[in-house]
Amino acid sequence: MPASNCSIERLRRSAFGPLEYCDNQIRLSLLFNLKNIGHSPAVSVSVWFKLLANIGAESNYVKIQKEMYEQQKNFHEARKNKFSEPFGNTIFPGQSIQLAVAAGASLPEIPEFLKDHISDLNTCPFHVKVVGLVIYAFTFEEGYHQTGFTLTLQRKMSKTENRSTQAFFIDEGNVPANNLLLINSPFNGLLPD
């Protein structure tokens, strides 16, 4: 089937809830607006994402997306075989839907090379990336399609003077949704197949 027949466009995404700190974890809910810009109904449409909290080191986003794709493809297949019905949403050509999705991650550990300079994780700056996939299938095709995305999470403003809005600090507390920015990363990872 030509690629023009099978496309899901990720129109907009926004923070649906605050970035919360709880029991050495961070949690975030995102709202995705998806539109079928192809000519065939898309079935089993779902959005999956992981939060990555880093101090210093970057992660291999494409590798993470590929692992997520395999996990979710296996999940979809197992569910379909067990329940004889697809998991996810159906989007008809030209139709848009909204999906709210939540994820969490462990707070980062202070790397060994920084421990002489930083002793308290509460005041240590860390960065958050959102790495995810939109997974979908089409009624007359075998297999699944994916569109990967990588977003940088930042704040619009800091509660504390002289602190970067590009980093998060536990001692500033939860960050409300209206103070969060999601910025497309220059390396989005997996492209639509």
Strand content: 35-45%
The global form is elongated
Distance between the termini: 12 Å
Q: Helix/strand/pairing class, anyone? A: mainly beta
User: Biggest sheet, in brief?
Assistant: 5 strands, antiparallel
- Uncertain runs with pLDDT below 50, 5 residues or more? none
Spatial sequence of strands, sheet with the most strands: 5-4-7-8-9
Rg estimate, integer Å: 18 Å
How helix-rich are the residues, as a percent range?
10-25%
- Count the DSSP helices: 1
Got a strand count? 9
- The figure for the number of domains is 1
Following the backbone from N to C, one meets helices and strands in this order, namely EEEEHEEEEE
Overall pLDDT score: 78
Helices, strands, pairings?
Elements: E1 8-15, E2 20-22, E3 25-36, E4 42-54, H1 61-83, E5 89-91, E6 96-106, E7 127-138, E8 145-155, E9 180-184
Antiparallel strand pairs: 1-3, 2-3, 3-6, 4-5, 4-7, 7-8, 8-9
Would you mind describing this structure in some detail?
The structure is a single chain. With 193 residues, the chain is mainly β. The chain has one domain. The protein contains one helix and nine strands; from the N terminus they run E-E-E-E-H-E-E-E-E-E. The strands form two sheets. A five-stranded antiparallel β-sheet has the order 5-4-7-8-9, covered by helices on one side. The protein is elongated and about 60 Å long. The chain starts with 7 loop residues before the first strand and ends in a 9-residue tail after the last strand. The mean pLDDT is 78.
